[in-house]
Amino acid sequence: MKRDVQAQSLAREAEQAALQLHTRRHFLKEGAMGFGALALGSLLGSCGFGGSSAPNALFDASNPLAPKPPMFPGKAKSVIYLHMAGAPSQLEMFSYKPELAKLDGQECPQSLLEGKKFAFIRGVPKMLGPQANFKQHGKSGLWLSDNLPHLATVADEIAMLNAVTTDQFNHAPAQLMMQTGSARLGRPSIGAWVTYGMGSENKNLPGFVVLTSGGNNPDAGKSVWGSGFLPSVYQGVQCRGEGDPVLFIKDPAGMDRDLRKASIDAINKINQEQFEEFKDPEILSRIAQYEMAYKMQISVPEVMNINDEPAYIHEMYGTEPGKTSFANNVLLARKLVEKGVRFVQLFDWGWDTHGTSASGSVDIGLVNKCRNVDKPITALILDLKQRGLLDETLIVWGAEFGRTPMQENREGKDMPFKGRDHHAAAFNMWMAGGGIKGGTTYGETDEIGYDIVNGKTEAFDIQATILNQLGFDHEKFTYESQGRPFRLTDVGGKVITDILA
Amino acid sequence: MSTLLIFLFNLPDFAGSFHPLLVHLPIGILLLAALFQLLSRKEKYQSLSSAVGISLFIGMVSAIASCISGYLLSGSGDYDEDMIFNHQWSGIALAVISIFAWYLNRKGRQITWITALMVFLIVLTGHFGGSITHGSDYLTRAFSADGSGQAEEKRKPIPNVQQALAYQDVIKPILTSKCYKCHGPNKQKGKLRLDIPDFILKGGKGGKAIIAGNTDESELIKRILLSKESDDHMPPLEQPQLTKTEMDLIHWWVSSGADFNKKVADLAQSEKIKPVLLSLQSEEKTESVLISDIPEKTVGQADAKVVQDLLARGVAVIPVALNSNYLSVNFVALDSITNSDLQLLEKLSKQVIWLKIGDSNLDDNKLKLISKLSSLTRLSIERTKVSDSGIALLNSLSKLTYLNLVGTAVTSKGLNQLKSLKDLRQIFLYQTAISEAEFSQLSKLFPKAVIDTGGYKLQFLESDTVELKSAREK
Lengths: 501, 474
Hints:
heterodimer, A: alpha/beta, eight-stranded mixed beta sheet, two-stranded antiparallel ribbon, B: Leucine-rich repeat, LRR (right-handed beta-alpha superhelix)
């Protein structure tokens, strides 16, 4: 009896599934639209349209990571994006504001607070002067704080964006905004877009690798390197610094390489049959991913191993093999780029200096964080330079927003340490290499770094510039999803031509 | 009401803009009338004689309309007045002659020399008109030395920018390349002419182009700084734009007094402009060669079969851009390179311009095959077994701009053999057998190139390894 019911429900389920394949909507779509498209297609075809203009033509399901040319010759071939999750204080690193020092301890004028919303500041906060000393560096006279003594030696390689702004003042949406062009979930990240556009130059490695440090993943989770509506094969592949770079990358005991190959071939064969039946391109992506996973078993441990790097390189980057550290990740980024990986995304966690603890303060915790990243980042620039790779590798440094010129007063109370709240209105980012003109600055903020004065730079502008350097017109680089073409930069974005070489 | 006024006010300009369209009617119709007249003398075409009258009439009307619209257009002030004079009066003469010819035809008479004069005037007026829009040398341009006519002054390299003449050497070349086309000897749009100091000072319809020392009031500065969205932005969007450097230079020159005779050194210089001026000096030696530099000459498509074969081997063969046939090739995914790989590559020698084949089993023997890729502009053979004798083969790669030899056994002797490669702009020699003492020698050998010898070291700072603690934690 029970069995009958079960069989019945199964039969019903099967029937429903079959129906779903051919619903009325499906018929209308395939029928009416199909005929219309057929007619239009032949019309356009005779005028020389059609064919190449098919949407999402860059996605070849059978070989989704095949190397592809950019729209125009790009200046950069790969990108290393260093994202300091939590948002470092620009006022202790890049933004020299002597006026703010004079206002230290004074109450913030009401005019600055009216109509503004902050994550934690309530009531009337006090201004907090810069907690670092600034000097000019290089021929370009770039202002940098003494928290970044190494970076100061390569000041002339850097193009500083002084007036970056966003409309999100919480970490997760702001990180999504920076990385995917939307504060809400569901859009592909820049790395996914780039991999969709260019594929992978190295057939044994993914086109987009993500490395995290600082003890946590970014607040927005793995969506910041997700593929959104792009085929999932374009999402970032997260590699670990400790232990196996990718979980379960080693064959289990008793499974040799030949047996592994045979089983993957068998699985792929079944998947191929599934594809013949359902024609879902995601199945082809799955097959390609199995293939790549098999190849990655050899290639990834090799490239992710920094033990064989010479001692002077370890000294230069400040790396310690076997640990998870930002320095290790930076060195790995260089190795990956050398091996033809298009987009390497680094997230370093722990920059959220509210002043709730010593490690979360702008005069102690931030200094330590700077010491962690200053040397490896400088080493990266110089190492890429001496290897002849700096001109074709775009380095982007940034975060999701900046920090307030006011001291945080969570719940209207004094904080135990000096900290600053989230500040979306004005912060700094910088770029180097990859056809960027070193020794330039773009944009200006007011004398306390509260608001921008000129050279407003939004996430879209930075994304447009990154795509431009790789050879893509951000206005024409689209993917059609749910019936309309999408852009990384939505309806915004302007290439920051002032900082281009 | 006001819209109507604006409409009426702008009507002459609007009507004038039809002149370039209308002028073609009298040219065609009157020539046809003359042709009919000539042909109708033959018995075979006699029937055409009845068409001469109506052709002359329509031609005459269109000639008059052209005269009126032309007169309205000349009021715009965008054109050289001397040139307009010739065109205007020959055009009016043509209209008068056409009236005369039509009148005679009505009276049943036909005077050959009147028709001949009409044809002559059509040619003459047309030529004058062409000179106005396309420049006075448009007809003979094809025969001039460089075939392009407009003798474009190439900017002379400035050996010492401080000793250069501010206007003559710095500003004038910018105006020549970006402004003269519309504000030069042939055209003076907005009544502005920028090729002679007196004219520059006189300004145009919009007011003074430059006011020495006052950049805020100088129309020229205002226009070039306007955002591109503005209608008044100069140069117009469809023309080559000024670069940031060029804008900075013009701004500096005007703010420092817009002197036409002084040397750069004699004009006030802010900290901001100094590096910009300096950049003019060593124009030859640029810091970096952008990889987007691809040959201007186009090339035929690569053999698809060969490309497929290489791709199947795991070699990344990609066009440098969607609409380009030039190829970028990367061997990064290959464990070992075989001679047959390189023989395949040789078949693409016209297309391959960028090649990355470092970190591989490449040796002097295999380099022989690479040396046949004569279109190469960028070559990376870092960390391979190539040596001096192999490097010498690269002599044949005359277009090479970028050469990466990091981590090879190459010595300065080997590099000496490449001194004929005049286009080399970047050479990477980190971890080679070249001693530091030899580096200066090498930069003399390749005066245009930036030679990077690497070996960068970061200063040792104690603070790097010290963790700051709060007073309370201590």
